[in-house]
Amino acid sequence: MKASSILTTPTYVRQRAEKTWRTRMIQILLWAVGIAVLLIFLLWLGLQIPPAPFPTFAQSSGNVETIALPQNLPAPVARFYQKMYGDKIPVIKSAVFTGRAEMRPFGPLMLPARFRFTHVTGQAYRHYIEVTLFGFPIMQVNERYVDQHARMETPAGIEEGENLDQGANLGLWSETVWIPAVYLTDPRVRWEAVDENTAILVVPFKDNAEEHYVVRFNPQTGLIEWMESMRYHGAASTEKVLWLNQSLEWETINGQLFNTRGAAIWMDDGKPWAIFEIEDIRLNVDVSEYIRVKGP
Question: Are residues 23 and 142 part of one domain?
Fold first, then answer.
């Protein structure tokens, strides 16, 4: 017998080895697919679990004085304030908003979050946000706009600059829709008529500059539905983008009507990057120190 015949692997042995190899590859592939499906399911499950709300803010609301509803307001504006407050407009100097949210800080997925926003009305704010998975924080955001200067702190780094200041100022005035009396009690703010369901809201910015919103009122309810402005995305932005704030729900809390659920939308994205739901509001509390710290 030739040596080559002795050294050649029999056909049935090769076939068995190939079959075993294919079987192992299929098993590995099935395990990989199974693990991927499990991870996707776990991610989905984690996104379904909302975080617990932040602990109740330590201070109760303070006294709220009122002024008379101003005369000669544009028709949809007058109708809105009559429905909100009647003839007496509350004077709100500070506010703390606590609630939960869904947001897309990065990528396409909406992540659950909880937040506490603090305002010195018309002047400054501080945002604290925790993005969560399975109800546990995975990302913290400390943002503030104080003394007309914005600073954003995230795990990605720190942002500051003129464009961020402009965006933060619009953020301040957009969130004021939660306490819209400020649009009447701040002497720097004015309303301009457009038509029966639309008005222009003019708000201050630093160095005597002004910013403008197109405010659209729902024809059936008379309440604010859309606020539209031109805003920089962030410090590195080179152009402003149409920024939309949509009021989704209005509810009565302690006898007062509030916009409790709203969405923020960048027009170049076309869908909400955040939906905020207010669960607790404290008015006219002392935030002189609290607005300059970090955390909840």
Answer: no
> Do residues 39 and 130 share a domain?
no
Asked if residue 263 and residue 173 are part of one domain, the reply reads yes
Q: Judge whether residue 19 has pLDDT over 90.
A: no
Question: Model-level pTM?
Answer: 0.86
Same domain, 14 and 75: no
Alpha-carbon 273 to chain mean position: 7
The helix, strand and coil proportions of the chain, stated in percent and rounded to the nearest 5, come to: 25, 40, 30
Candidates 160, 113, 171, 169; CA nearest to 140 is 113
pLDDT at 235: 84
Beta strands at 224-232 and 240-253: parallel, antiparallel or unpaired:
antiparallel
CA separation for the pair 124, 229 (Å, rounded)? 19
Residue type, 152: M
The single-letter code of the amino acid at 261 is R
Biggest CA–CA distance in the chain, Å, is: 115
In which domain, by residue range, is 203 found?
Answer: 50-292
- 221 and 174 in a common domain: yes
pLDDT digits (tens, 9 = 90+) for 152-179: 999 989 999 999 999 999 999 999 999 9
From CA 89, how far away is CA 65, in angstroms rounded? 8
Residue 1 is predicted with a pLDDT of: 46
- Shared domain for 85 and 214, answered yes or no, is yes
